[in-house]
Amino acid sequence: MIAEKKVFPKFSRWKCGVLSMWLIRLVLLSRVVVIHDGASEEIRVATWNLERFFVRNREMGQARTPVAMAKTMECLTEIGPDILLVQELGGEEALKALQERLNQKGLEFQWTHLCEASDPTLHLGLLSRYPIEESCSYDSDEFLHAGQIMKVRRGVQYCRVALPSGKRLHVVNLHLKSRRDVTYGDSRIIREQEASIARRIINEIHRHHPVKEGPLIVAGGDFNDHPSSRTLRILKGSGRQALHDPEPAELNGDRDFRNRSVRWTLFFEPEDSYSRSDYLLVSKALESSIDRHRSGVHACADWGMASDHRPVFLTLKIGQD
After folding, report:
1. So where are the chain's domains?
2. Quick one: fold of 2-319?
3. What pLDDT does residue 90 have?
4. Is the pTM of this model over 0.85?
5. What share of the chain is helix, strand, coil (3-state, %, to 5)?
């Protein structure tokens, strides 16, 4: 079913798969999706750093407690994503456990992809209700810093998802270097170098999919930096290939989304601080598709039982071809 294929030959090494088109058509036809002429389909995309989502004890952390697992399932069920990007996943076993538990809650994630890179413990995952027709794990792209060759520690995950309307959604999942100090280099510079590699991958998506209105791209994850940082400027890019930050906030009744809305996604306990670390950026072709009244930062009671991060989600109303 899955064949090896090099999608973006500009990069050094990756793990890629392509799903046969007849199977994609079969799955899409089997879903009960009605899209009338001139109407749009609604897709909800979410991202969440799950804070060491392990299903068994290991050196780097303990298995998720029943209380934490229950809160994780509660939050994701309330959001109801069609496509879910996750960070700090404990590997294939953890991804399968997450998929099975969410399916038991009725979310029906039939398709998954795991991105494993040089980090031996924490990985990227993507779950989708729609077929992942192409996937890549960019796990060995290198950069030079402090006199040594480094890799993007958690890799860059790319999936092309086939939507019921026939359109294709390109999804890029990231977990960039944290702001914690390290002995082997400057965390900020490492993070910016990782962002530059991700930006080149986004540019390659544009180059390989030169549709008139531009490809439908969502780039999300834990970027570990502030909205005005150079990391974000690199990822956003400029011109026709630029990505837009819709600045989702809590849906708490605020009427003006830009007037001191609550947007923090990370609680950093050592400093007792709250900041915005998690993002969903969209390409120009998707800017007008965002339903801002049904997009936001998920807020619920006892959110900290599940993770030190809060999920971010976008509701997109995508028109037909």
Report:
1. 2-319
2. Deoxyribonuclease I; Chain A (3.60.10)
3. 96
4. yes
5. 25, 35, 40
Q: DSSP letter at 180? A: S
Low-confidence stretches of the chain (pLDDT beneath 50): 1-7, 9-13, 22, 24-37
Rounded Cα gap, residues 98 and 306, in angstroms: 13
Amino acid symbol at 161: V
d(CA 17, CA 302) in angstroms, rounded, equals 39
Which structure tokens are listed for 32?
A: 């009960």
Helix (H) or strand (E) holding 73: helix 66-79
In this prediction, residue 34 carries a pLDDT of 41
Q: 180: alpha, beta or left, given left = phi > 0 and alpha = psi -120 to 50?
A: beta
Residues 6+ apart with CB under 8 A from 302: 71
> End-to-end CA distance of the chain, in Å?
27
Question: How far, in Å, CA of 258 to CA of 43, rounded?
Answer: 24
Task: Name the nearest CA neighbour of 306 among 273, 265, 271.
Answer: 265
CA distance 211 to 157: 22
